[in-house]
Every structure is written in C-alpha cells, then in structure tokens.
Amino acid sequence: MMTVGPDGKIMVRRCLVTLRPFRLFVLGIGFFSLCFLMTSLGGQFSARRPGDSPFTIRTEVLGGPESRGVLRKMSDLLELMVKRMDTLARLENSSELHRAAANGHFAVDRFAPGAGLMERIQAIAQNVSDIAMKVDQILRHSLLLHSKVSEGRRDQCEAPSDPKFPDCSGKVEWMRARWTSDPCYAFFGVDGTECSFLIYLSEVEWFCPPLPWRNQTATQTAPKPLPKVQAVFRSNLSHLLELMGSGKESLIFMKKRTKRLTAQWALAAQRLARKLGSAWRDQKQILVHIGFLTEESGDVFSPRVLKGGPLGEMVQWADILATLYVLGHGLRITVSLKELQSNLGVPPGRGNCPLTMPLPFDLIYTDYHGLQQMKQHMGLSFKKYRCRIRVIDTFGTEPAYNHEEYATLHGYRTNWGYWNLNPKQFMTMFPHTPDNSFMGFVSEELNETEKQLIRGGKASNMAVVYGKEASIWKGKEKFLGILNKYMEIHGTVYYESQRPPEVPAFVKNHGLLPQPEFQQLLRKAKLFIGFGFPYEGPAPLEAIANGCVFLQSRFSPPHSSLNHEFFRGKPTSREVFSQHPYAENFIGKPHVWTVDYNNSEEFEAAIKAIMRTQVDPYLPYEYTCEGMLERIHAYIQHQDFCAAPSPAPGGARAPQSPFVLAPNATHLEWAQNASVAPGAWPPAHSLRAWLATAGRACTDACLDHGLICEPSFFPFLNSQDAFQKLRVPCDSTESEMNHLYPAFAQPGRECFLQKEPLLFSCAGSSTKYHRLCPCRDFRKGQVALCQDCL
Predict the structure, then answer these.
(1) What's the total number of domains in the chain?
(2) Mean pLDDT score of the chain
C-alpha cells in the first residue's frame, strides 16, 4: 500500500486551495473546448461508410475550410487562456506574498502547482497547434479527392427533365428560395445544395425521380405489413377509461357516461357476436383525436359542461370511443396537439414536411378542428393518408361544399367545407344526409322491468322543458302560459345564485341535473317539450326512450343557411322543417308531435290530445348499443376510401348498365343475370333507380318510395344507357361538373352525366332537372345498412 508523506498531503491541499472557482471554470471551458475539437475532428476523420447520412459527402467537402477555421480559433483561444492564466498567477503570487509577509512566514512550494498547471496548458496549446497543421493537410488531400468525385456527379445533381415528374424543376426552384423557411427541411438533411434538394424531393417527397447513383434499397423497401389480427369483442371497459385520460370536465363527463353504460355495452357485444357468428373481423389500429377539446382550438366546451352548455358532442364522442373499444380494435386517444404530433410522427418544424414514418394507424377519427390541425402539421402526408380519416360532423357536409374547386366557382365555399374527401368520410349524428355516413350515438335501453315501472309511475300532467340555458326560455311566455293550464311544468335551467328571470315563477326549476337524476325526472314526466332550439340533440331520444311524448315546433319557412344565423356557414343547404327532423320523420306519432307554435289553437289541441295518449318507452334500434356496434362494425370492415375510385364515364359511350326496366316500367332494377360488381359495398344488387320529378332531390325521391338514396351507386347510373332503359328521350348527352348530375333537362331534352365522382350527391334539386337517383333498401331500424350489408 502506497503512503503519502506530509509534504505530499500539503501539496494536494495547496492545489485544491489554489484552484479557485474561477480557475476551475476557465479550466472547464478549456477541457470542453478540447473535447468539442476532438469530436469535430472525429467527424472529419471518419470518411464515408455504409449507412452514413445521405449528405455526408457534401457535408465533408464543404466542412473542410470551416473545420480548419475552427481549429485555428481553438488554438488562439487556448493561447489567450494561457496568457490570462499567467496574469492571474502573477496576481495571485503577489497577493500571496503580501499575505505571507503579513503572517510572518513564506513557502516557495505554494506556487509549484500553479506553475505546473501553466506548463500543462501551454503544452496542450502546442499540441492543438500541431494537430491543426496535420488536420489541415489531411483536409486538403480530402478536398482534392472529393472534387474529383463531385466532377463526376455534377450533372447528376441537376433537376432532371422527366415527363413523369413535371413539377420537379419547379419544386427545386422553390427549395432554393425557401428551404430555410421551415426547420423540417434541415431535419431531413437539406443543406442548401442541389443534391440535397433532389434527394429530399425524390426520397422524402415524391416530386422528382430517384437519383441513379443513390442506394435505392432503403428508399424502395416498404415496411412489411403486419400480419392481420382478428378483433375480439371486449366487455371490460376499465382500460378504456384509463385511455380517455382526465383533467378536463368534458373528459370527466364522458368517462362517467361510459362507466354508467358499461353493462349495456357488454350485453350488446354478446348479442352482436351471436349475430355475426364466426365471421372474421380485422382488428384495426385507430387514432381518435378530439380536436375541439384541444387548447389550440379554444376548448369552449369543457368550461361549460357544468353550466348547462351543449353536451351532444361529448355524448357522441363518448359512445364512439366505447364502440371502437368494445369492437376490439387498438385505440389511441389524443386531446392535445402535442399528443397528436407525437402519435403521427410529425417532424420538428412548421408542418411543411411529410411525416417521419409511415402512418401507424389504419383509421383516424377526428372532427373539423382536428382535421385542420392534421393538415397544418402533416405536410404532403395529409394528402397521402387523408383517405383513412373519418370526420365526426354533426350537421353533415354536402358534396357541393366538399369539392374545393366547385364550391369556390359556384358559391358553396364555407369555413368548414372544401376538403375534397369522399363525402362518406363525414359521419353525422343523425341519418339526415345520405351523402355522409351515419355515426349516431346511443340512448340507455330499458329492460322490461324498468318499462313496467315507468308505465305505473307516470304523472299524466307533468311536463319537462327541453332547454338548460336560460336564453332558450326567452320570449316563450305565451306557450308556457297555455301549457301551465294543463300541466305542471319542470325545468332544468342552470343558475349559480339567483333564479333566471327568463323562467316564469310557476315553473319548478331543478337546476342543472346529473344525468341519472335527469333520467329519473323523464321517467315521471308525460311530456318533453322543445322550443325550437337546440337542433337535433340527443335529449328528445332519451325522453322518448323513457316513455315521454316529445312535442316540437314546425318551422315555416324551414330553417337553413339562407335564413337562419345558426346554419349560416355550415357546409349544407339542408332545410330543417322542425327542431328534430329525425324524430319527426323516423319516429312520428304517437311518440312525436310536430305542430305550429304560432297557432295557439293547434298548440293547445296538441297538448289535450297528448294527455289522452298512452305511449310505451321506445328507442329505435340504431340508437341502441347493439345498433351502433353493428353499424360501425360494417363501416370498419367494408368502407375503403383508399382504393382507387372507378372514374365516372366521360360521355355517351360508357359501358352498358347492368339494369333492366322494372315490370311496372317505373324504375330500373339490377338484372338477375348481371354479374355482381366486385368489391361494391353496399352490394349493387340492392340498387333501384328512379327518375325524380323536376325540383325533387334524390334524398326525397327515394324516401317517397320507402327507400334510401345511396350515392355509392351513382357510377352505375352515370351513362346514356341508363337513360335509354328508362325511356328518357336524350337528344344530346354532355358530361359536366355539377352536383345535380346525372339528370335530364325537360325543355331541351338534354341528358347530363357527372364528370367529377366527388360531386355525386343525393342532396340538391332544381326545377330545371329531373335527377336520376340511386336508391336501396335498408334494414329495419338501421337505415345506414341495406338488407344484405352485414
């Protein structure tokens, strides 16, 4: 064992005393600078190896002069440090001499450590200077070699003239001028050189052809698709509740709803599993991004959850999450922009570059806010992957508003439309727009015991008003006065301390009730009455499911974007004839009464009739847990908007349609001997084609015959042959972009075909045209699905 004498201990102690904090700081800088220097040199010595950065050659060639400059600066810095340390040492020596003289003793060895340190720093500086000279020689030799290689590749780093890539040269020009506008370009290796532009535009984006001298193995080898996994129904929703997160009142509301309905979801899954039998179901990886709950979109809903704000959107989103999870799919949920970027693989920057990896999700469910956020941050990847997106859209988006060019030219452009998606990618709360897919939500389903209790516990003279916000009650004194003559009126209007003045004194206001207590109130009431707003919410269905009669006002003229502020700017021309069109058209009497509130006699007569009417709780199958599971299962397994669409026929010489005229000569039917269209969903044999009367939309024309308009069948009808088989006299046939085509114009006996598949539309009408309409049958209680759609 080595021993240290007293002098050695004193020496170590003096070294520690001598190396004051400032000296340690200066030494630290020197050591860090040396490490940085050696790291920089390591990049220069490494030469080119397989797997290097795509731009290693260019970086090294251009890095030579800069590296030599760095070496010189480092050497100068160390020399400067030596001089300053020498000055500090002299000052320290002087101060130590004075203190020693004052203390009466003097030790020469106190200065030995400082002197030794100075010698070491000077030696380091000399070594760095020697290294700089040697590296300078190496880099000069490297530059000479690289210049020869660059000469051979200079022509290969010019924008190629390839007719298959017509935008290449223009994109290179743009990159020259703007590549520093977004850090994401540097993230992908762009460094301002022509080669880096072309490599980026051919390998990260796809505007230029691959460079022949590049290693194409990595860029052309697509990741192998993962093996298919069968989806298995789930009944335990505890993990879903964890995935939903917390921290927002809206999420707390959604989790409470999901937890309350857990037993109903489990029972519905069992029923659907028996119905589907052993049919294979692909498990999908699904991202759910609730854009309106992100801070970036304002999240105006969460603060209003406890103040009577609208809950319809949160009801629907909670049920969507439960549906996807119960069906057995992989689920990821985001409610912030940061989470969205992380899950998508968004590169750092301002959103102009594609994603850093292939999209790991088969489907993305979002809303208009989330759609906008994805477009802003996914670059070109948004166009590539937008076919996988499903947009939850309460009021629907019609094709005329969805097609950007057409909407701009014909006055249909709004703040919410022009996305150029397949219209079926928009998913609505109610089945009011056949051009879109019907997503829906669920209402609690009662068992027979609960129904019996409701029948025996109903108060024949109790009414509950639909409206939690005081503003809805304003100006309704006349209706309330008539209603008060026959019924005890209850309200659930939110208030903090004082009773809202808009609510009359004879109304018993319970304040804002939790959902279970609200359900109990509905189970006692005879009538649930609406005052015209809010439109198409879930509450009327909940009331009907709990044995109430729903009374609503008829709108004359109908409300639309042309005459009502609420609908202005929404991407639809739909006319709303009542507060809840679904309840009026798909449920109707005796559960739903729609009257003119401006006619006091009609209003009063309706109340008397309702008091005499006995109704049982009723819930349409499509709004049960099983109905929603069945519908979304069919969408996930059959809807594929990423497959290349069949082009709309361009004129009169399109192939013959596989139809025959029905025996009564009123419409076309799918010919029995016609081959089934491969991959068509809904199955094409369910199609029935009618020529609508002038001024009638296809949506209404199909309903007139007890059918549903099916826009995916339009391509089968988009031919002159279809008109001929319907015995329509076409003196001329033209193909144009118009959301009303295919159609027949009576005055000139002209037939018009659709030129743009995205404009096939069930909605829309004109007195000039008889529209050719594709209709289909539907399952009882499930209008979204045809008889054979499962």
Answers:
(1) 4
(2) 84
